[in-house]
Fold Glycosyl transferase family 2.
Amino acid sequence: MATSTIDSPSSTDTFHLPSSPSDDVATLDYAPAIEPVADESQLKTSAEVSYADDVLDRIDDTLNLIAEAQQVASGNRPVTSYDISIIVPVYNARESLPEVLERIEEVMPSSCEVIVVDDGSTDGSWHYARGLMPKPNLTVLRRRRHHGRGSAIRMGLRHSTGRVVAIQDADMAYDPADLLGAVWPILENKADAVYGSRRLRRDTRRGISFASRLSGRITTLVANLATGMKISDMESSHKVFRGELIRSLELRECDRGFDAEVTAKVARRAKVVMEVPTSFEGDFLDDQFRPSLSTLMQTLRGLVQYRAA
């Protein structure tokens, strides 16, 4: 497996921005989200979490398949495949979600589908996404309860059709425009996976706290040692994969361990992994960007466990 770094394209002239797409929408609308577990100690073991998540996956997927079958039968949802599938995991991101979706529509080509997966939000994110209907090239899915970013991404993967699958968080810490530089090498069959690296952007490095940089360096070092890769930012949320590759992986992690699991498993299957610069404007004082010892240990455990699996 080869790892290399490429520069992002300076413009989007090679893409045709969407004008009047004709594809319809799939949406789910069912019971309100269950409140997230306040005390994480209530989830006793990772095995119990995986089992519960699998059960909910089956319920959610069954409801989604029924909804999609009804739309296909009525002619409201043509069976369509796309060049690019962008999965947007959402959890309580009502304020930033509109900007993220507008930005994706602005910079991405018309052959792109957006899959929004609400992970049991309680701030109105789901109601906003549902209110966008009908909108072309958009699929909106909902988890019955909050189970974590990895769980939401896995659901999005099961409903993706693109030759390329990209992950874009809903908090706008990462600019969707940076995904263009990561998508292109895979569309041109030059890479199997492309990681957006915050460490290839000097201005971004200055905006990340020391604790975050230290945690990221440790996990990335272990990732490189465990997988033989040569990447600089394993924990970056901007990750792009060849669709056939990422959909073939049996992914299990629900939350913090997802990046470690997908990195370890992709390393075993991918021939070429590239990196491109990506910007980052997250507030590191926010809890979601604040590293913890438990998160670090979970990531390290995942790298070793899934690499050996």
Notes: The CA atoms of residues 11 and 106 lie 13 Å apart. The two ends are 18 Å apart (CA to CA). DSSP finds ten helices and nine strands in the chain. Confidence is low (pLDDT under 50) at residues 10-44, 284-289.
